[in-house]
Structure formats: C-alpha cells, structure tokens
Amino acid sequence: MNERTALARLEERPRDLRRGAILLRENDPQPELFILQRGMAMSYVLLDDGSRQILRFLHTGDMLGVSALVYRDSPETVVALTDCTVCPFDRSVMTALVTDHPRLSAIIMVMNQMEKVALTDRLAALGRTSAKARIAALLIEMHNRLRRRDQAIGNSFTLGVTQEEIGDATGLTAVHVNRMLRQARGRRADPARGQPGDAAQGDAAGTGGELHRTLRRARPALAPARALGFACSPPSPGGGLARE
C-alpha cells in the first residue's frame, strides 16, 4: 500500500455533523481519531468557574482526537462551528500507518509539534501581550489557514467566528473584543460578525515584536511534508494534512 492509499484509508467513513454538534466531549471516552474533511470546528476546555477556554480553531485537513493514542478519555471538547464532514478511524489504523509508512509518521509528528508551539505561544500571549496583539495574532493565523485552502483569498475574508469565541480564545470578554476591533478597524466591516473585513495585517500595526513569535515558527520542519506532496504552510501550527 502506497502512502496516498494509506492516507485515503483515514477518510473511508465520512460522517456529517450539523453546526453546533459535539464530536468529542471533555472527559468522555474517545475510541477514535478523526480527519476534518470539510468545515470548521473548535476545541475547548471548561474551567472550574464554568468559563470556556478555546484551545484551537480547526480547519479542513486537520486531524482531531490525536490524544486518543495516549489517553482513554478526551482532554477537550470538540464542537462543529459550521456544518462539517468528519472521517473517524480506529487507533489500529493509525498504528498501521505509523509502522508501515515512517515518512507519514514524521509528518504527523511535525504537525503535532507545530500545534504544541501554537498552544505555547497562545499561553505566552495570554499573560504577556496586549489585547490588541492577541486578537491580531489570532486573526492573522486564521487568515493564513483559510488562504492555504483558497489562494483567491486576499486581505479580505469571512472569519466565521463570533466576538465571544474570539474572546474565549484570547482571554478577553466579548465587550473588550468589540472595543479592540472597533479601535483597530474604525467604521470598516467587522469580520467577527461573519462579514468580510480586512485580514488584520494592518490591525497589527503598533504591536511591535509581539506577533513575531507566531509568524516565524516551524519553517525548517516543512521539508518532509513538501517532499510527499502535502502542504503544511506556516504560520499555521497544527495545520493538518492537506493534499496539494
């Protein structure tokens, strides 16, 4: 079995999810992993005070539930932000892929490291950067993820998340997010309401070096993926496996 056939096996059982459907629930058993074949999702944890901390926004091509390889129960909740198609597969399929196709195993390791770096940067940003820098970094990251799938996207795009979700990802209230967006964007269209808007590169002006860590990551690790004909373009840590 060649590498592309092995990857195709991961998508043999597509399943449709409606917007708002929960794919994995925190602390519930997670016997399967998933490929997000279509749509957008997010992962989050609930804190002791009942508040929500969004960990990642997930895009087409991402692998979900990788922690099932290590943990019996899910450490996070994964919910569909749009109508989605996911493809579940068993741990045994992943085990066979890692054993039989070491280059694919290397790519998956690279992706996991990129995701780890992204979460590390988000943690550092929550405690050490301004509200404006946190929001700008998130918007830039999401713009680049979307543009990787659609090269026609320029400096204007539909974000597809709410101000509350931006706040839960950046440690801010929805009111604070609204204020920062209004300050940064003036009277232009606000992408946090799901409308087209500028892609935050301009909004990042004045944040100085606070965005550099997010934007410079993981370039040396791309060679294995490129050699196999798969795209994992920075600055999108955790960017998933996407056929070119």
Task: Describe what is shown at a glance.
With 244 residues, the chain is α+β, with helices and mostly antiparallel strands.
Question: Could you characterize the architecture of this molecule?
Answer:
- This protein is an alpha+beta fold and 244 residues long.
- The protein folds into two domains: 1-100, Jelly Rolls (Sandwich), CATH 2.60.120; 101-244, no CATH class.
- It contains eight helices and twelve strands.
- The chain has helices spanning 3-9, 91-100, 102-128, 131-149, 163-170, 174-185, 212-215, 223-227; strands at 15-17, 22-24, 32-38, 41-46, 52-58, 63-64, 77-80, 84-90, 156-157, 197-198, 230-231, 242-243.
- It has a four-stranded antiparallel sheet with strand order 1-8-3-6. It has a four-stranded antiparallel sheet with strand order 2-7-4-5.
- Strand 4 and strand 5 (52-58) form a beta hairpin.
- Helix 2 (91-100) crosses helix 3, helix 4 packs across helix 5 and helix 5 (163-170) crosses helix 6 (174-185).
- The longest helix is centred in the middle third of the chain and has 27 residues, at 102-128.
- The chain is globular.
- It starts with a helix and ends with a strand.
